Amino acid sequence: MTLSQLQKDLLKMEAQKSGEKKILSENETSCFETKIKELEMILAQQKKDFEDAKVDFSKKTDKFKTYFEKLKKTRVVLEQQLDRKTQDSKAEKDQFLKQIASLESKLASQDLISNQKEYSELRISYNALKAKFDALNWDKGKSPISNLSTSKVSVSKKIYTGESSKSFQKKVS
Predict the structure, then answer these.
(1) CA pair distance 22, 28, nearest whole angstrom
(2) Which segments of the protein form a coiled coil according to its record (predicted)?
(3) pLDDT digits (tens, 9 = 90+) for 128-168
(4) pLDDT tens sequence across 15-53
(5) CB 112 within 8 A of CB 159
(6) Rounded Cα gap, residues 77 and 91, in angstroms
(7) Cβ contacts of 159-164, under 8 Å, gap ≥ 24
(8) Cα distances (angstroms) measured from residue 96 to each of 92, 93, 107
(9) Where are the domains of the chain?
(10) What is the spatial distance between Cα 125 and Cα 142, in angstroms, rounded to a whole number?
């Protein structure tokens, strides 16, 4: 064997080794490529799932937003209705109080008028009875009560207002 032949054999062996390496590297490359393709498919599926979840979450969020907006609007409407009812009831209360005050004043004025009429009727009746009594006493020869030394009974011309300035004690029998 000569040196050149040894070199050729060595080159052949190296070529065979490099061919084997090429086959191995091609096998490894194809294995890596399939793994990369699998991972890319998994990544694409996860992206799609994430986007679907994001869209679903967005839809649900929008539903809740509209639901809460409707609740807020309903709350505002109910508060306005309650305010109106409260104001209406306050107005009715004020109106009733005014009516009561008006009726009380009418009643007081009617009582005053009726008391004045009753007073004047009683005064006329008293004067007529006093005149008859005096006439009877003159006929019997007695002096009239007005001339007696005892105290006179006098009726005031003041109008009765419902309150007395003097208190009277009740007699218990």
Answers:
(1) 10
(2) 36-88
(3) 998 888 888 777 666 555 455 444 455 555 555 555 555 55
(4) 766 666 666 566 777 787 888 889 889 999 999 999 999
(5) yes
(6) 21
(7) 159/112, 159/115, 159/116, 159/119, 160/115, 160/119, 161/112, 162/111
(8) 6, 5, 16
(9) 16-137
(10) 23
CA distance 69 to 63: 10
Judged by DSSP in three states, 66 sits in helix
* Residue labelled with tokens 């105290």: 151
With a CB cutoff of 8 Å and minimum separation 6, the contacts of 160 are: 115, 119
pTM over 0.70: no
Task: Give the DSSP per-residue string, 91-144.
Answer: HHHHHHHHHHHHHHHHHHHHHHHHHHHHHHHHHHHHHHHHHHHHHHHHHTTPPP
Tell me which DSSP letter residue 156 carries. Answer: -
Q: Which amino acid is at 54?
A: K
